[in-house]
Amino acid sequence: MSSTRDIDALIEMMAKLPGLGPRSARRAVLHLIRKRALLLTPLADLMQTVAATARECLNCGNVGTSDVCDICTSEKRANGELCVVEDVADLWAMERSGVFKGRYHVLGGTLSALDAIGPQELRIPRLIDRVASEGITEVILALNATIDGQTTAHYIADQLDGQVQLTSLAQGVPIGGELDYLDDGTITAAMRARKQI
Amino acid sequence: MSSTRDIDALIEMMAKLPGLGPRSARRAVLHLIRKRALLLTPLADLMQTVAATARECLNCGNVGTSDVCDICTSEKRANGELCVVEDVADLWAMERSGVFKGRYHVLGGTLSALDAIGPQELRIPRLIDRVASEGITEVILALNATIDGQTTAHYIADQLDGQVQLTSLAQGVPIGGELDYLDDGTITAAMRARKQI
Fold first, then answer.
1. Which residues share a beta bridge with B105?
2. Which of residues 158-197 of B touch A (CB under 8 A)?
3. Residue A101 at interface with chain B, using a CB cutoff of 8 Å
4. B71 near A CB under 8 A
5. How far is Cα B130 from Cα B103, in angstroms, rounded to an integer?
6. Contact, B148 vs B111, CB < 8 A?
7. Hey, is the C-beta of B58 within 8 angstroms of any chain A C-beta?
8. What distance in Å separates residue B122's CA from the closest CA in chain A?
9. What residues of chain B lie within 8 A of the CB of A77, using their CB?
10. Distance between CA atoms of A167 and A172, rounded to whole angstroms?
11. Alpha-carbon distance B196 to nearest alpha carbon in chain A (angstroms)
């Protein structure tokens, strides 16, 4: 490589980001260097700010810039509904849809015997505390429709059984979905949960 | 979005990088925030360093950290061969192969009537100066095998005609290539340039 040490190091570090490989990291770094005044310097400044301020909410596990996140501090969101998600990315996806007005609880993963991830490694004890202390009336288990996600949902449902109303997201045909491209499991779920028009 | 302003701004800025979209930018930023001590802070520092030091070589257009790049200053690379490439990424690709021991000239693009890019917008006048002043004996036109790349190669060949030996990269079947997946043009070029075994 003819580029010097720092540039090589930057490419190597960018290549470690999810979704980027060595080739796309090189392209991104060249783009950044070409627009260094407009893009590279502001990006570096912003990263420094985020590195200094970003933290996980001590209550729900969401990412924010204070010890307790905006959603947990907002009184408007204390409507008794608690949505349990695996990951902050899932929380952001729910927020983009704008459909949910309650609070969240981010587990930080799923139970996995293979990876030795038990309830203590996730935020499950904290979830059980919150259900008791925050006046929660409904827990929505919005975990991914994978085996690990559903195993985790069953475990949580067992733990909270009888204390609170438990719901999960509906399964069926996604909006814009074509039957021909859907798997058998989804079609079966959609057929079983069919609705009167 | 429940994340705060700086995090949103960082996602937005990362999404502008080539190869990243909004979804992968969100994933990358979440990954960076989770590993902020190990990854985000060093990355921000490195970006700041590169923003302060990176510049284009005044001679050849390569990216480096000094006014004249390492290749242009190395006496070992003054072997009379000059390899003309479109872009710094192409120069890096040539350097990774390790096959070329001479110097480079980065045009910074291709001639394009549609985008109003003429010889003055590229480093073509500088190339003609260098051929005269640096004792160049062979100019290798390593431009992309696209219409714009080949038009540019023809233009440069016209300008340098008679002054220097002009060559271009061989065209043919790529190593590991399967005939069934190659286009007709490549097969035709490979057949015409066939070699005695």
1. B84
2. none
3. no
4. yes
5. 11
6. yes
7. no
8. 15
9. none
10. 16
11. 35
Q: Model confidence over B18-54: pLDDT tens digits?
A: 889 999 999 999 999 999 889 999 999 999 999 999 9
Domains of chain B are 5-53 (1.10.8), 77-168 (3.40.1360.10)
Stated length of chain B: 197
What is d(CA B93, CA B77) in angstroms, rounded to the nearest whole number?
A: 17
Say how many Å lie between the first and final Cα of chain A, rounded: 65
Q: Tell me what ipTM this predicted complex has.
A: 0.82
User: Taking chain B, what is the end-to-end CA distance rounded to the nearest angstrom?
Assistant: 64
Query: Which chain B residue has its CA at the smallest distance from A55's CA?
Result: B33
Nearest chain A CA: its distance from B117 CA (Å): 18
- Beta strand A63-64 with A55-56 is antiparallel
Is B174's pLDDT higher than 80?
A: yes
pLDDT band of residue B1 (cuts 50, 70, 90) is very low
Quick: pLDDT tens for A89-141. 999 999 988 899 999 999 999 998 888 899 888 999 999 999 999 989 999 99
Sequence-distant (≥ 6) Cβ neighbours of residue A182 within 8 angstroms: A173, A190
| Nearest CA-CA partner of B102 in B61, B134, B144, B129 | B134
The helix-helix angle for B41-53 and A5-14 (nearest 10°) equals: 140
For residue A57, give the amino acid letter.
C
Look up residue B6 and give its two tokens: 């700086």
